[in-house]
Amino acid sequence: MNESWVRIQRLIQRGEVQISDHGYDELAADGILVRDVMATVVDAIVVEDYPDYPKGPSVLVLQKDRAGRAIHVVWGIPRDTASPAVLVTAYRPDRERWTDDFMRRKK
Question: Is this structure's pTM higher than 0.85?
Fold first, then answer.
């Protein structure tokens, strides 16, 4: 299991969550509800791992909203801190840029 994602999931379970300003903007732009993201985080699948990201370890995960539509969410932990889990951004993946299962970028 992905170490960064395990740490982030533990923070989320404890309610130690923050949504970045950019995250709020992107959620709104794609009509994604925070409650859908939080309700489906337990079933998220890691798509990409960014353990050495300059702002802190991050992961891109595939989640689904309550209607079953795909959502990509980037979760992270700020560098040199143990908390909180930060929802960096969330968006509906573009079928033109992603494989049909939304797990790999098209080349």
Answer: yes
- Contacts of residue 104, Cβ cutoff 8 Å, sequence gap at least 6: 47, 98
Residue in 73, 78, 66, 67 with CA at minimum distance from that of residue 102: 73
User: pLDDT per residue over 45-80, tens digit each?
Assistant: 999 999 999 999 999 999 999 899 999 999 999 999
DSSP 4-56: HHHHHHHHHHTT-EEE-HHHHHHHHHTT--HHHHHHHGGG-EEEEEETT-TTS
Whole-number Å distance between alpha carbons of 9 and 14:
9
Give residue for tokens 């702002």: 55
CATH topology of domain 3-91: YaeB-like fold (3.30.2310)
